[in-house]
Automatic annotation (TrEMBL):
Pfam family, one: DUF309
Superkingdom of origin organism: Archaea
Listed name of the protein: DUF309 domain-containing protein
Coiled coil residues, start to end: none
PANTHER family for the chain: EXPRESSED PROTEIN
Originating organism: Haloarcula hispanica
Length: 202
């Protein structure tokens, strides 16, 4: 859960409120009922509260704030490293006045640290890359291929080209379209090399 958790927190803290839940959702859907399921369900609804408030959907923000408080109620603070009292306080204030959510969305911390893209290790960065690809209408297959090739590099093939590009795609927000184009070009080049080698043995 840690990598998914940190990736979603980073995406949220960087202002991509709607996209943040994608880092948690697939993991959450596989959980049985229990504290972890309630925790992620509450966080997903929390990010939806902030998203609705940013879109001035006050009734949506208020209703989800009330529901999210219920999911997170009774969990210890911190839980899984996340400072929940700050989140619960924000949700309670938003349930009372939804305009509160637009004025003061809290930074989410993990293990006492405000998580951003530059604090993620590779596995969490890979999750964030996939989330940002989907949210930004980038070719998800190209990103997934780059992540797979980066994992091969980390497993010892001697390269670091794709590792660097995956980190850059996530961390360099203003340059993301340029980084993506370079990443996609390299993916296509490597795919062509793979196809050429396969062709020799068919």
């Amino acid at each position: 859960m840690r990598d998914h958790l940190r990736a979603g927190i980073a995406v949220y803290n960087e202002g991509r409120y709607h996209a943040a839940h994608d880092a948690w959702e697939a993991y959450w859907l596989d959980l049985d009922e229990g504290d972890d399921e309630r925790f992620l369900h509450g966080l997903i609804q929390f990010t939806a509260v902030v998203h609705h408030a940013s879109e001035e959907n006050w009734s949506g923000a208020q209703g989800l704030a009330e529901s999210a408080v219920e999911y997170l109620d009774g969990l210890p603070d911190p839980y899984r490293g996340v400072a929940l009292d700050r989140v619960r306080s924000f949700l309670a204030a938003t349930a009372a006045d939804p305009h509160h959510a637009a004025a003061d969305p809290p930074v989410v911390t993990h293990d006492g640290e405000a998580i951003g893209y530059d604090t993620l290790d590779f596995d969490a960065t890979a999750i964030a890359a996939e989330v940002l690809a989907e949210a930004g209408r980038y070719d998800e297959e190209a990103i997934n291929d780059a992540v797979d090739r980066a994992r091969d590099e980390l497993d010892g093939d001697g390269g670091s080209q794709f590792v660097g590009m995956v980190f850059s795609f996530v961390r360099e927000r203003d340059q993301r379209p340029v980084v993506y184009q370079r990443l996609r070009d390299h993916v296509e080049l490597e795919q062509q090399k793979d196809d050429d080698v396969r062709g020799l043995f068919e």
